[in-house]
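<backbone_tokenisation>
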Amino acid sequence: MSEDSRFNVSTSGLVLLVVVGILVIAQVYVVNSLRTVQGQIAEVRGEQAKLTESANAEVAKEVAKMRGAAAAEAANREKTIEAVRDELDNTKRQAVGVAVQVKQEALKSVQDLASKVTTEQEKLKEEQTQSANELTGAIQQAATTAQSNIAAVSAQVTEVKNNVASTQSQLDRTIADLHKVTGDMGVMSGLIATNGNELAALRKLGDRNYFEFTLPRNKIPLQVGDVRLVLTKTDARRNRYTIEVNADDRTIEKKDRASNEPVQFYVGTSRQPHEIVINQVRKDQITGYLATPKVVTARK
């Protein structure tokens, strides 16, 4: 074997030893690392076990507390129930000496107290229904009353219309019965009224002013309208009379005139004469009216 061959063999063996050494070292490192990891895992498991144990202990404590609270609540409820039972027993014992009627009323009061809310609700519903019915009835009654009032008013209006029509018809008949005559001055008179109804009809026509009067025979002038009258003589048997008319500061004697005869005279410058119509002649007085123009037209 040459030196080169020996050198190569030595070098290869050395390299192999180095590689083997490195592998051994790596294997040792890996083993140590695995041991370290296993130790850490064991520590973690230990901590986890401790935590689990601690948590279980806390849960157990909380469960114990809850059981204790439930037991205490149950005990309190039992005490309350016992107190209520005792109160009921006391009430029953106290009610032993009460009369039968009082007992029944007490029991009825307990039952009424239990159903009070339901009763009040039903009562409220009934009141609402009753109020609605009363309101509906009131509205219907008001409508009926209003219709009755309207019917009554309509009847009254019809009656008034009939009365007005009757009055107008009577007035027309009365006016138709009136007649025109010539006065004592030869002037055609207007319509002459011989009684109160006819005079009322003339007033409704509105053509002239009318003044009713009763004139006694006592020589004292009576103011009628715009003139003054004095009765000087009467003849009741013949229905005739004599008067003096004072107008425009002058006196006019109307002598021996008949009843329902227009006695005419002029006042001022009016074209239409004043007229006196006497309807009744008695022993010492006369009754009639004075008619004067409503519109004064001056004479030319």
Q: What stands out?
A: The chain has four helices and ten strands.
